[in-house]
């Protein structure tokens, strides 16, 4: 199949695990996990956290780490370990997508992005992940109203 026909999926959530160690000492890939992460307040599913929940963990003292080989962030919060995408990792993925001539990107799921602007404390941008995808692929910014209309449309389609 030609690359131009392949659309790359970008998550607005993180996947998490509960570590065997209750106090991990540092950022380290390869720590042993006992089970999926605890269910979060809003997603309420073990092993999954919305991007806005990840941001909340970071404001409460979670340690953000960076995997240079995978070009993605992960965090350690008490005995919880999450891998996720943020603006920086999505910028890198979109650059790769364009260099390799893939067909585009899609988001799963719109409502897990930071719709309140909590993640970027300097600019208070809403939907930073979706905005980054649009900006990197089209060179333009997207209006919040457009994002809200998309969400309404897909909720109507359910």
Automatic annotation (TrEMBL):
> What InterPro entries does the record point to?
Chitinase_insertion_sf (IPR029070), GH (IPR017853), Glyco_hydro18_cat (IPR001223), Glycosyl_Hydrlase_18 (IPR050314)
Task: Give a GO molecular function annotation for the protein.
Answer: chitinase activity
Every GH18 domain range: 1-140
**Gene Ontology annotations for the cellular component aspect, listed alphabetically:** extracellular region
Annotated GO biological processes are: carbohydrate metabolic process; chitin catabolic process
Q: Which Pfam families match?
A: Glyco_hydro_18 (PF00704)
Q: What is this protein called?
A: Cht7 (inferred by orthology to a D. melanogaster protein)
Q: Which species is the source of this protein?
A: Anisakis simplex (Herring worm)
């Amino acid at each position: 199949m030609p690359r131009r026909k392949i659309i790359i999926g970008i998550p607005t959530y993180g996947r998490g695990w509960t570590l065997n160690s209750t106090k991990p000492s540092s950022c380290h890939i390869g720590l042993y996990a006992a089970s999926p992460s605890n269910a979060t307040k809003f997603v309420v599913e073990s092993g999954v956290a919305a991007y806005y929940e990840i941001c909340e963990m970071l404001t409460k003292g979670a340690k953000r780490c960076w995997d240079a080989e995978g070009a993605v962030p992960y965090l350690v919060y008490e005995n919880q370990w999450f891998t996720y995408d943020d603006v920086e990792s999505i910028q890198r993925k979109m650059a790769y997508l364009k260099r390799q001539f893939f067909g585009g990107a899609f988001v799963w799921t719109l409502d897990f992005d930071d719709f309140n602007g909590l993640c970027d404390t300097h600019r208070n941008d809403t939907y930073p992940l979706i905005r980054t995808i649009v900006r990197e692929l089209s060179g333009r910014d997207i209006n919040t109203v457009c994002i809200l209309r998309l969400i309404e449309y897909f909720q109507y389609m359910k």
